[in-house]
Amino acid sequence: GAGVSQTPSNKVTEKGKYVELRCDPISGHTALYWYRQSLGQGPEFLIYFQGTGAADDSGLPNDRFFAVRPEGSVSTLKIQRTERGDSAVYLCASSPWGSANEQFFGPGTRLTVL
Amino acid sequence: GENVEQHPSTLSVQEGDSAVIKCTYSDSASNYFPWYKQELGKGPQLIIDIRSNVGEKKDQRIAVTLNKTAKHFSLHITETQPEDSAVYFCAASEGSQGNLIFGKGTKLSVKP
Q: Could you give the CA distance from residue B82 to residue B13 in angstroms, rounded to a whole number?
């Protein structure tokens, strides 16, 4: 079946602009995670959804970052007033129900802030 | 919070040899430990995982061991092939929600 998909695959923006990154999880997966991966590092947790609600947003670096999942499937990560330090690969993963279960990652969106 | 350390950062082996990557974790409450393989330009791919009620798990050429007392777990790849070349990440699941804490990765190179 189809895996996790993310769009766009690449996004180049200017400092101060607003961006939206989209994640389509595996059908039927109730848990959805966003991670951020900087060059040469492991992914770092940003936010976790169980259904429509953000169950844990403790990884969001500041209030410029926000994510939604209004219908419990597709999620959008939103970044306001982008900064050069936001440049990274943003990864989305989904899981059948979360806790201690396999997470399947999408290919990521490479965000470059000029 | 949880902290995961991974060693070595780079590993070069000859085709056919074995490769071992080791990780330690800090939070004794962590109960799920997956391993991911990441190729250049791609997302991490789950290759094997282990839960805290099991000491060892094997899947063909790949095995993972877990020592809960010492809080470390290891990935073993036997009969390595050039296509095993990639960056490998270990992770630990913190808390009941399942968000993963990753190690910094090991770049494995398998020379033909």
A: 10
Task: Please say whether the beta carbons of B29 and B23 come within 8 A.
Answer: no
Q: Which two tokens stand for residue B92?
A: 């630990």
Q: Quick check: A103 and B101 CB within 8 A?
A: no
Q: Confirm or reject contact between A9 and chain B (CB < 8 A).
A: no
Q: Percent of chain B scored above 70 by pLDDT?
A: 98
Q: How far does CA B81 lie from the centroid of its chain?
A: 17
How many Cβ atoms sit within 10 Å of the Cβ of residue B56? Answer: 13
Classified as helix, coil or strand, B99 is coil
**Residue of chain B nearest A59, judged by CA positions:** B99
* Partner-chain residue, chosen from B43, B102, B103, that has the shortest CB–CB distance to A106: B43
A112 pLDDT tier (thresholds 50, 70, 90): very high
Torsion B41-B21-B105-A31 (CA) sign = positive
DSSP characters over chain A: ----EEE-SEEEE-TT--EEEEEE--TT--EEEEEEE-TTS--EEEEEEETTEEEE-TT--STTEEEE-TTSS-EEEEE-S--GGG-EEEEEEEESSSTTS--EE---EEEEE-
Top-confidence residue, B91 or A101: B91
Q: Are A5 and A106 in contact (CB under 8 A)?
A: yes
* E strand or H helix at B69: none
Task: Quick: pLDDT tens for B31-72.
Answer: 999 999 999 999 999 999 998 888 999 999 999 999 999 999
